[in-house]
Amino acid sequence: MSGDTDMSERLLYADRLVRISLRGPARDPRKTPHHLGFPLGTADPLLAVVGEIDVSNCEALSRVLAGCRVAGGHVTVDTSRITFIDLAGLRALLMPALPASQRWVRLRNVTPYQQRLLRLIGWFYELNPEPDSATPQTAP
User: pLDDT digit string (tens) for 12-22?
Assistant: First the structure.
């Protein structure tokens, strides 16, 4: 855990299946402008999701995601420790009803299982593009 010494976590939601925490720099919120106890800055909020996401807790995930969004920015979700996710959970994370340019959740550490599931339902290539990916590329 040598790289995590400057990071702290704040538990935002937990039930019998999943824990959702906000990760951020360990700084004194009394001395720095903050949101949810973490300093405001240029980095997107990072959520760590551990466990199972299904129809029973996807609404809570959606509320947590919306609550972490700062000034219309993005929220990054580390999916590496999600052990199960159903279609309701995927909808909460990927917001497929919105055009790709309006989606504000970014996924990090997508596992091979999650990639396979996303490919099976046709959403893998719709994952949130990097901001510059919409710019037309010129041929060399």
Answer: 999 999 999 99
